[in-house]
Every structure is written in C-alpha cells, then in structure tokens.
Write a structure and sequence with these properties.
This protein is of the alpha+beta class. The chain contains 15 helices and 17 strands.
Length: 515
Amino acid sequence: MQEPKTTDYSEEIRAIIAAAPFPLIISRMSDGTVLYANDRLASLLEVTAQELIGRRTPNMYADPKDREALLVALKKKGSVTDHELRLRDFGGRERWALISVAVAKLKGESVLVSGLNEITDRKRAEQALSDSERKFRSLVENANDLIYMLTPDGIFTYASPNWPEVLGQEVSEIVGRSFAPLVHPDDLPRCLEFLNSVVESGEKRSGIEYRVQHKDGSWRWHTSNASCLKDADGEVESFIGIARDVTDKKQAQQALEQALRDLGAAQAQLVQAEKTAALSSLVAGIAHELNSPVGAIHSVQSTLAKAVSRLEEELTASNVQLTQSVRATLDVILDADRVVATGTDRVTEIVQRLRSFVRLDEAELKRADLHEGIESTLALLQNELVGRIEVVRSYGNVPPFVCYPAKLNQVFLNVLTNAAQAIEGKGTVTISTFIEDDMACVSFRDTGPGIDEQHLKSLFNPSFATRAGRVGAGLGLPISSQIVQQHGGVLTAQSRLGEGSVFTVKVPMKLEGAR
C-alpha cells in the first residue's frame, strides 16, 4: 500500500526542494520509501517526479550492499558526503553518482535527505583510462623490447619490467641512475649525441646501435628508437626509448663478415699459391735451361784456358821469341778467359739460388738455413734492387732449424718486394737476424716514407687496401702473416710517417710436429 502523498508538507519546504540546483530526494529512513524527489533526480532515473513518490530506494541501487554501507556510515557519522555508488535507472542502465546524505526529522519520523551528483561520464572516462593503462601495462610487461624513460640529462625515471630478464639488473637498481655507466665507453659519445639531438629537436630518432653492459659484465648489442614527451608549455620533460637486443643478429653478422674475410683470404692464398707454383715452375725451367749453355760455356772456357797455357809452354820450349803483338794477343785471350770464368761462376751461383728459392722438393718440414733463404730471395730480386737499393746485412748467430723453407722464402719475398716498392728513388734495406725467446727473428728495416698509424692495425687484413706507399702492395702482407702464423709465429710492423718501417718475422725454432 502506497504512502500518502506529500500534500501535508508545507508549500515552503516543497518550493525549496523543487528549487534545489541538483538532484534531491527525501526518503523514509526505516524502509527507504520515497517521500519527495525533484525533477532533476527524476530525470536522472528517467521517470517523472510524481512516479517516484511511494517507490522504495533499495530498488534503485545497482548493488544493494551500497545502501547497507551507506546506512552504516550514517549511523557512525550522522551524515555522509560524496559517497560513491551505482544506481540503476528505470530503463535498466547503471549510473554512477556521488551522494551526500543527512538524517532529519519530518513530523517526528527519521528521513534521509539526499543530494546526488551524477558522475557516469567521469567514471566511464576513468574506466576507459584504466583499461587503456591496463592494456599499455600489459603491452609493456609482455614486450620483448626494453622500454625506458630518461630525464633530458640522462637519468632513468622508468624501466620496463623485463629489464632484469634482458640485462640482469633489477628495475630498482636502474631508476634514478644515469644511463652513461651502462654504455660501452667507445659508444658513449654517439649515444650522448643521439640523446641531445632528440631532446633539442623534439623529434623522433631511430637506428642508433651501441653496446650496453649486462650485470654479468658481458656486453650486449642494442639498437634504439627514441622520442620525447613534452609538458604543457612544449618543453621536453622526458626522453622515451625503445631498445631491442640485437646481439645474436650482430654476432651472426660478424660471423658472416669473418667468413667473408676468411673466404677472401683463402681465395687470395689460392691465387698466390697458383702464382707461386707458376713462378716456381718458371724459375725451375729457367734454371734447368740455363744449366746446359752455362755448362757448355764453362767447358769451353776451361778448354780455352788449357789451350792458351799449352801454347805458351810450347812456344817457350821452342825458344820462340814472342813479339809484343803476340804477347798482347795472348793477354787479351787470358783476360777474356777470366771474364768468361767469372761470368759463368756468377750465372751458376744465380741458378743455384733460384733452385734454392723455389725448393720444389721441400713442401714438408725440413731443417734449413734462414740466411740461405734470405740470400736466395735477394738473388731473385737482384733486378729490383741493384743500382737503387743498398742491402745491409746484419746477420746474427741463427743456426739451421726445422721449418717450411719454401713458405718462409715467400714471406721474405713479399716483405722485401714491399720494402723495395715503398722506397722512392734510392734507399736502404737493413736485414737483421737474431734469436729472441727461442724464436728465430728476421727484421727488415727500410728507409721508405713510412705508414700512417691508422693503417697499421689493418695492414694484414685481406679486405684492407690503399694505394698510399707501402700499403698498396696488395695481398702479399696478409698472406705472409698467415704463413708466419702457420709456423706458430708472428709478423709485426712498426712505422711512423717519414721514418721508414720495420717488419719483423718471428718463428719458433722448435716447430710443433718437427721431425
């Protein structure tokens, strides 16, 4: 049975309630029956004010527990201000509201005087923001990339939760610290330049690659994209970065580059081996072909010498007085004989040096004399050196030892050729041999223009090439370095511009596997 209408209430109170600038309702405290509601509240619930009268407020709560909590608060405090709750309008839709309630007496009966402020739009916006934050948080927490924020001067203000998984440090160890100590010293200048360019321009940047230190001390390769977060005045307040670990990709790339270098070196070695084999065959053929005519000349010279000597003896025995003209003729023949003898000896020595250099029968380990190999090489380069480059020998006491003689001769040839080509005009090459720490050492010092310091590290790299001075010698030095390494030794270079260069070959005198 409905309660009586509000016709008994004074017109003044009704006028005040109706004039309230916010939704207002008066209900009986005992059972929640609506005694009065203004049009603003009725509009909120999508009914008329008259239709609300006599209805019970508990049916208007989306959750009945909200009313119970409200009554408990009222009993404790006597009034409630801005209590948040959900209402359900008569169309079945939920609405959020802030309710302020006070207890009053009306004709001796306790009533609740309630004012409402709808916050449905605000709650929806908050919910949307909360959903967005939740999705963003889920995105960040499940991302494979690192997400971080820095102040404009490089201090971490945020690091994504996957930081420990990627770099080992806890987020608490990162936030509040500068990023600089984590970056490899060689990469730090580029990273600082990258940070400053983003902060100063306020524009997005991408593609910087750098190394960052893992907690275990190892270095990981990262690539980053970055943008800026600006305040209301347009000033940059944060640097936002997204970093991806590309260590595996980088290592694969480096492995590929190394494989390409190795392939280039192998190809160069193959080409050089073919050239050396061709040279060896050519030299061996020339030496063989020279042997026959040189032998014939030597034989004829010997016969001529004996004939002249016998002629002199017979003339002397016959008491024939030699005229001055005949004596002069004999002297010319004797001088020619000596020249022919000297020439044949020289050619024979050169042929022996050529055969010694190619050593076609010495592809395996063999005990050899280092100095003999050097001299054989110098004989082969005679045409390049004579009249232009003085060779100074400073040989130490280096006994024969087991090595690959033909391969070492190739090293000596490459280094000496390089030195000769580096010297413009006349100059000097000083060859020194000595023993150091059970290593047989040969140093080649030249008076060429020297090598720029920036090229020294790349000098033995097959992919390195330049036409400046000595460095333009091609693949000879890389191949020589590999040959020396195969001996368990090392080929080093020291040089300064304008002061010449020194190349030193060091090989162990007790080569592993020697017989």
